[in-house]
Amino acid sequence: MGVDIGGSSIRAGLIPVESGPPVGWKVRSTPQSGDEDEVAAALAETVQSTLEAGRADRREAGAVRDTVVLGVGIGATGLVDGERGVLVENSRLGWTQMPLSDAVVSRTGLPCTLENDANAAALGEWWRGAGRGSKCLLCLTLGTGVGGGLVWAGQPFRGARGLACEMGHICIDPGGRQCGCGARGCLEAYVSGDAIAARAAEVIGPVGGGFGGTEGEEAGGGPIVLTARRVVRRARRGDPACKSLVQETGEVLGLGLASLISALNPDRVVVAGRVARAGDLLLAPSREVVRQRVMEPMRRGLEIVTGHLGNQAGSVGAAGAFLLAERQGEGIGALPEGPRVA
Amino acid sequence: MGVDIGGSSIRAGLIPVESGPPVGWKVRSTPQSGDEDEVAAALAETVQSTLEAGRADRREAGAVRDTVVLGVGIGATGLVDGERGVLVENSRLGWTQMPLSDAVVSRTGLPCTLENDANAAALGEWWRGAGRGSKCLLCLTLGTGVGGGLVWAGQPFRGARGLACEMGHICIDPGGRQCGCGARGCLEAYVSGDAIAARAAEVIGPVGGGFGGTEGEEAGGGPIVLTARRVVRRARRGDPACKSLVQETGEVLGLGLASLISALNPDRVVVAGRVARAGDLLLAPSREVVRQRVMEPMRRGLEIVTGHLGNQAGSVGAAGAFLLAERQGEGIGALPEGPRVA
Fold first, then answer.
1. Is this complex scored with an ipTM above 0.85?
2. B302/B314 same-domain check
3. Cβ contacts (< 8 Å) between B172 and chain A: which residues?
């Protein structure tokens, strides 16, 4: 089972070991208090209900054998101590020293591992998604913020304390836009969902409602604040101001990717998250900047693509991290390879 | 034995497995032709003469047992295919598809491994130098250009094709100084020896000879071109213009390090090479920029220090890479730890 604990939602599913999509998929809200018992109860409840839903799904699909769950892999947002299974710190949620693995083990009896959520998402795309078959995968998730992950030699790169891959905070322009981290000119200050919405407010402003007559929440006709989701949707429909904003975003993303490609020599870059729904409107300008800035041998065989797993990448990768830890304990040291889907 | 093949010199020595400095140290010039036989002959001659010198050194030091050489580790500048033991490309030397490992094996009978020189230098500092005891070591060598290396989980991080760690080409300022790679604003365009000399020519210009009366080659009294070495030496002696140039270099280095620290979460950064001889004149401004730009959890326990092994780091690390490959083959998977020297 893979459990992805994000800032607002917990997503969980049973991930078949050999191949196939998650079953028994469950989404619930993340407890916003730092109370250990409340978090542990929510986690145990998620595991139990996912287990039941997964077993029911499999029975419905005609499975004859009983569903055996090997264990639970958690991917959690924040500073993670994988060895102790503790979420050390998530200042936004107000969680500190949260013993997530112990909560699962003591309340469900299932073995459990803990990984950072961005590392888990990268491992998920590498194992079952757009990163399959790559030797060195760099994954950037452009959501509210920017998450990063790196998979090399079949495992997530964690750095000294499991904090590696804060790719959102590499510097694009030392005197540039203010970032939430306190520094200026970080990649995140340009390409995250929040940053795109802020830039849209500056250069486009609120727009008239009912654009194209089909935008659901915009049908009322009043002025509309452009979220990143709306910017991407309008850009795809051909709105010139939104297209140009997405293009500029792609160029800045390309600057960041160029630095990361020179430093890390990936053979695949996966850009995921809701901003990546812009597809080539975003990635074509990125690829062009990478072509201009990165030395030729580093670009040979390199692909820059969008993610395949959407918001299931974290759960899939968290389950992969559990399986990887178990197999490393048995001296196997690699995940089973299912059929290539990418 | 460790052999470090650089653009101008080949340096080699016997590296004792448990501890101690290189013995039988040899330096010779690197063949500047791309002729395979000439390169193979030079390499074999280096191995033989290092072997003889090392044995003589040990006999003189009173060693009673015969010196047993386990094999040869090469660190070579350029694009390296470690699995085949081939230097794929070094455009500056005009070497292509150079079978370096085979040259050693066929001409000396010793087993041989091949690693990139910057990875080898990082592994050397991690194994025997300023990186000892770190979980994740980032090493930057500021010489003519900028070399980078990363050691994680006890082994060099190589990326997809062994090209990782071109840290000199992360972007500091997209509209900034022209870099030799063709792009603008790369770290290397500010902090390499060549870049410091170019910036000194722009902001200081040639200076009067005999500064301080003791500078050897400057005793003639005529106008002197400021090389990076001279800039560093003058800065250390208190020359205000050179101090200020070194300080600015440290600030730009800090910007680059801040991005790399966010992306990689090292617990130790080693800055080596001749520019690093400026010591804290260079590193104090770097540390200050890192303090301003990098989030606190990433900075906890992080040290930014100068290298310990000087121009022997590459040979020491190349020998370490050989030993590591041999021990991984035997399922040990780690280098022996000698007494802590750092």
1. yes
2. no
3. 171, 174
